[in-house]
Amino acid sequence: MVTPEDIQGWIAAGLPGTEVSVEGDGAHFEAVIINPDFAGKSLIQRHQMVYKALGDKMKADIHALSMKTLTPNEYQS
Questions:
Q1: CATH 1.10.10.10: does it fit domain 4-76?
Q2: Hey, where are the domains in the chain?
């Protein structure tokens, strides 16, 4: 079973410079992902970056992932 720590590690490995926290119950997860590379990107582009970092795990291992994708400045506000 996938844990929040697994997802946290996969995102951090795929998006260097990311601060990430993940909560979940093994099937449904919520993540707050903070990365300076999100600056100037739309919400869809940010989510695509995270999906790319997760690769096939999003299809095979993770049932549902809700994300808040923020730049460091947005997180501070």
A1: no
A2: 4-76
Distance (Å, whole) CA 16 – CA 68: 17
Residue type, 26: G
Q: What span, in angstroms and rounded, lies between the C-alpha atoms of 42 and 12? A: 20
Task: Look up the pTM and report it.
Answer: 0.92
Helix (H, G, I), strand (E, B) or coil at 40: coil
Question: What are residue 64's DSSP bridge partners?
Answer: 28
Query: 74 forms bridges with which residues in the sheet?
Result: none
Sign of CA dihedral 19, 58, 53, 77: negative
Q: List, for residues 66-77, the tens digit of each pLDDT value.
A: 999 999 999 999
* Strand-strand pairing, 19-24 and 28-34: antiparallel
